């Protein structure tokens, strides 16, 4: 039986420094191998799309073929009559009074009713005994649409008499936006930017465009819903946040949350695209209607419509500086297109505005950020979350300002770099290390990659390796017309949920003896989406409990929420919860030891006691008892919540407030070679320096930085969802036409890791996953500008932007 089981809450801001310096192998600071790594690279890992149930049906979603239209009628007769079909559902079949869901604003219908608002919106569901039968039956559903005018940009969204994407809004943002087609607006005003501009010797402005990027995770949306005997449902799904899904699913199904049991299945990447619901409600509806398990797996075409994307943006910036390079002021206006439904747009606006100045000290700022409702595809969370778009613009501005001042662009950045104690535009001080200037110094000081790497000597002289040239194996050049360019960028990203959100995680830790050995089990609801959280949790348990055997319990909703696997927060927040639960377990174990053995050795009462190598030891290394003898047949089982320091909402008029809990910083140097005749780009090297606070697993840290860097490279030169501006229909929903970097596109990515501890965080760590996605994109753009002399104020850069054709 467990000893002292409990669920409790640790007060926010509880100190989180190391409480036990364990030397147990496999603890924090080591590059322990991922438990899922070998299975994934050998193709043996079970992803959610691999799940199977003997008598399961297959679900399919019918989606709208137009972006904005009234639904006059839906005829399902032919689909229902198809052999092998068990159910066809539309809006009228939804079982509860609640029909909509959403992360913050419940504006997204489970199935369209009366109107569709974007291309690919779910309209009907089919369950059949074979996936192809379900698809063919869905194709037989007849929908009569009356098309409506589309809203596609700010002009059409806010023009007099503009079509309203959502009529009769009642959400809490409607009271402070200037138009119903604006989801959220956040101004940030500090000082007097207009007066400060009068002191500027140089003023530069720019209008920038950031394209719509897809998360492009390789594992498509999938899940298995199994009806249970109590009238509930068990859902096995690939997601980023089990408890958020549960909170949105239950009202639409008309079930209490305890009748929906969710378990995380294998996730093939996420990057924000699984934070919103996709097939979860649909699979459950079909399972409950048919009384049979229902599996749903999107193909790649469906996946492009089944999740949100990164917000495209238009950004206007103005920077001023004195002749010696000191910034005088910054003004900007950021317009994000949120698409048809709100998703995470309000929070993205908060990030984009509060981080709009970047990692620089500027006293006088005037910032406005808005997100639109439109009939374009819904946009929401993606790695970088609003800070990516802003970084692209402010770093282009810093290069433009350096050119106007005839200064080195790195030196200009270093001159204005924020540091610990700097006040952000929101009035919040940076209260941990901010090594912006040092990160820039490090990437600049790196040796340059050799020139003309495509040439190699052989017995007959020189030969050309076209793989190292722009255009690669298409053999478009042997070096003629190829020019090298070098560019730099640095970015600022917040860590964790912000603006007063109750950002906590829960961890349950159990210690017991199994087969004579002490074993720790860690149970959280954290979604492992590839970031390596399961590895780090085991490392924390080994460090804090001094045991080598650690089991990670599958993530499910039978334990308290671990929050979202997003915002670079999981190692910080859920890692913090695991650490504190382990500390509580350790204290319980030591108390057991004191009761059992305290009379045999005075050190039980007088010495500082540690758990090391499966034993209770003193800080001098003396062994007092094996853990197996302390525990015997008892178990210690404790569940705790843990919160980081509280944040607060930004003032809706001035934007002032301590809105963020932590910041992360990364800098990049990009080296590119550009075929100026054909407009083709080859990125040769993309070096990164990043402060991680404390590298709990150095190998995983390096992998995260390289992965984020590659995603930033993608949106710099190739990735963009193309939406027809006249019809709001997606033109390229496939990996044939939506390009992502392959191994041939990915350059060498040397990584320089700093470890400057944040004393407020567990082990001094910083969230790391997003920061490299910010600065890699503008660094690549800066390098292309350096090679070509072109302004290049949009991303991604296409060949025609370079050639002018």
TrEMBL record:
A Pfam family (short name) is MoCoBD_2
Q: Which domain of life is it from?
A: Bacteria
Query: Domain Aldehyde oxidase/xanthine dehydrogenase a/b hammerhead spans what residues?
Result: 42-149
Question: Where do transmembrane segments lie in this chain?
Answer: none
Annotated segments matching region Disordered: 1-35
SMART domains, A to Z? Ald_Xan_dh_C
Q: Please give the name of this protein.
A: Xanthine dehydrogenase family protein molybdopterin-binding subunit
Q: Which SUPFAM superfamilies match?
A: CO dehydrogenase molybdoprotein N-domain-like (SSF54665), Molybdenum cofactor-binding domain (SSF56003)
